[in-house]
Structures are given as structure tokens and as C-alpha cells.
Amino acid sequence: MRDVIIKNIGIFVMIFLCFSAEALKAEVKLGYYYDSWLSTVTYSAGDVVTYKSKTYLSAIAANKGKSPEAVTTAWKVLGIVAATAPVGPQGPAGPQGATGQVGPQGPVGAMGPAGPVGPRGSAGVPQAGNDVGDMQYWDGTQWQIVPVINPDASIKPTLTLCAGIPTWVLYYCPGTSPYTIGETGPAGGKVFYVTNGGTHGLEAAPVDQSVGASWGCYGVPIPVANNTAVGMGAANTAAIVMACADDNTAAKVADSYVFNGYSDWFLPSKAELDLLYQNRAVLDGFNKITYWSSSQIDSNFAWSKYIATGNPLSILKTTQFSVRAVRAF
To answer: In 3D, which of 193, 216, 207, 205 has the Cα closest to residue 266?
Structure first.
């Protein structure tokens, strides 16, 4: 153990001396640490990257496509990445911790079949609507709201009886008719993923909700938001909104979006963002440089998608990128 400590101290001193020597030549304000160097990313002066077991400091602005190993005028060596010390033996198991907090409520499942008609109840008290055009219907027990929807002028909604419930629909009752990729979805977005023969899937909002929102909660782990699979974007978004106190985060921007009376939009997971990119030809305006997903990597980094190449990027949560909300149907 003593030899490992001495070895690590020696490596630290070597890195410190290298950095100090460079510091005598020029003063550069440190920027972001970007992990491994990528030829597709434009770095600023002061940004730090790792390349072939060495760390480099960007010495110029608009530093793109310049290999740290070949272009020495664009990069300055900070030091050699120290080897990881061997892992010590596992200690004895500690006492069992307290039961954690209950996680957020999962997404709403598909509507089940209508049950048998019950006996007629007494007259209920009408409920107040929220918007001009809201209507009410009697469900056998009480009055319920039929919320109005306000699509653009080219779409004419129809009041339809869906599973016995009066519903304003743009095309079909939810879960009754197949949709195809590129078709306008139930809420007026663009369908980019279908399942169950097209009766269910995902649709994207017709416009971006932001071009400059951070992921938020830098330094704060949100384990429930580590999911990357298709179908997990809604749960990720709910966990971020509940746990992150930062304002104007990508998840909160997507969660607060309302379109055509639908308010169940969310920030897509990493895999759902991949599907958005694969079907970007059917989406309007999906051409900003980078979009956030709702999938966290750790307390400091989260997944995003670089639209120019389609590459997934591990980026600091403080970075500001675009937001495109999606919803399930």
C-alpha cells in the first residue's frame, strides 16, 4: 500500500511540474473537460481532452479537426494519465440501509375495455371547465369534462364517442386505427415510432421547445433517470422534474409543453432520441446541432445526440442544447 501511495504521489508531481512549466509560457483560462478528443467537436481555448493516455489543453479558439498528437501549436500537453492503482480486497458487508423513497409514478397504461353499465345515479354537480370550448358529459355517476383542442386551421377535430366517452379527435380514437411513420399523430405531432400494428407508438412535437436549455442538476445524481431504453423517456422526465430544483431544464421545458390540448409530452430517452434521428426526414425543423435526451450518465454527464453525424455525445449537464418533446399514444 505504501509503494502505491509513493508511486501515485510521484505521478502527481510529474503532472504538476509539466502543467507549471506550461503555465509560465501563457495564461489560459480553463474551459470544459470533454473526455476523449473528437475530430467533429469544435473546442475553445482552455478546453481539456484526453488523447492516447495523455491530457491536452486547447491553445487556440475554434479548435476543430486538429489532432493533439500532430498539431502541437493547437494543443499543449498537460500530463500523462496516471495508471489506476490495483483494487484492494473487498471489506465486510455493512449493515442494511434504510428503505429508500418511493419512486415516481410510472406512465399511464393503455385504456382497458369499457365495463358494464351501472345503475343510474343521482344528478351530479357540473364541473367547471378550464378553457373556452370545454364541454361536459355524464359518465353515469358525475359530470366529466371534455377538454377542447385547438389545432391549426388545416386540421378539423371531430367530437367522437371513443369507448363510450365523448372525445375530440384529430383522426382516430386512441388505440383503434393504425398510424404510420410520418403521419400526423393523435395530438397533431409527427409519428416517428409505431408498435402493435401502428395502434400505439410515439409522436414528436412539430417544433422545438428550446434551442438553449441545460440538462440541469450538475453534480446531483438522479438514479431513476439513468434509463436509456425506448419507453423510458416519460419516467426519466418525471424523475428529473421531481428531483431537480434548477429552472429551465430540458426536462421541465418538455414537461410543460402543451399542444392541441395535450399536456403529456416528455423529453425522449437516449434510444427514443436515436429513433427521432433515424426518422428526422419526417420532422419539421429537427436540424439544430445537438439535442438533449432524458438519460443521465452520472452526476455530471448526460446523453445527447449530435445531429450533424448522428453520434451520441456524453456532455456536461451545464451545456445548453435544443429540446424536442415527444409523447406516447
So the answer is: 205
